[in-house]
Amino acid sequence: MFDHLEIRVLPPGRRWAAQVRFWVNGEDVVEGVVDEGGRGPFAADVLRADQPSLLRATSEARRLELGEPECTGGCCGFLSVVVQRFGEIVQWSDWEAPFAPASPPPEFHFDAGQYEAEVARVEAEQRWQVNI
């Protein structure tokens, strides 16, 4: 059975620009590890209009930052995961987390079709952009 990914772009707030959050199997991965005050990566950094999203999975493994605590990643570390595609499976593994939690998230395995469709959906949805 595959895990299910949902990506949400939260609107800008008083402290942060629009940010990306990741729900896996109905749970917010960032909040689950870095607590309520933490944040996901800024949408403008992850969902750039001029190139494919960093969220895209390829056969080459790469580390992706998914979040940081309220005090910033430079202080306490980032929540990151290695993303890699193996045929029809996208794997998230080898977690690194701030504060060295007692139990980091488990390895996740997504159906590549569902994963790519979700990434394409959030790439196409540009409502979070604000013209200044």
**Oligomer status:** single chain
Largest sheet: 4 strands, antiparallel
Order of helices and strands: EEEHHEHEEEH
Contiguous low-pLDDT stretches (5 residues minimum) are: none
Distance between the termini: 45 Å
Q: Strand order within the widest sheet? A: 4-5-6-7
Q: How would you state the average pLDDT, rounded? A: 83
User: Helical segment tally?
Assistant: 4
Structural class: alpha+beta
Strand content: 25-35%
Structure description:
The chain is α+β, with helices and mostly antiparallel strands and 132 residues long. The chain is built from 4 helices and 7 strands, in the order E-E-E-H-H-E-H-E-E-E-H. The strands form 2 sheets. It has a 4-stranded antiparallel β-sheet. The protein has a 3-stranded antiparallel β-sheet with strand order 1-2-3. A hairpin with a 2-residue loop joins strand 5 and strand 6. It is globular and about 40 Å long. The mean pLDDT is 83.
Short description:
This protein has helices at 29-34, 43-46, 73-76, 112-124, and strands at 5-10, 19-24, 27-28, 62-67, 79-86, 89-96, 108-111.
Notable characteristics:
single chain; 132 residues; alpha+beta; four-stranded antiparallel beta sheet; three-stranded antiparallel beta sheet; globular
Topology diagram in text:
Elements: E1 5-10, E2 19-24, E3 27-28, H1 29-34, H2 43-46, E4 62-67, H3 73-76, E5 79-86, E6 89-96, E7 108-111, H4 112-124
Antiparallel strand pairs: 1-2, 2-3, 4-5, 5-6, 6-7
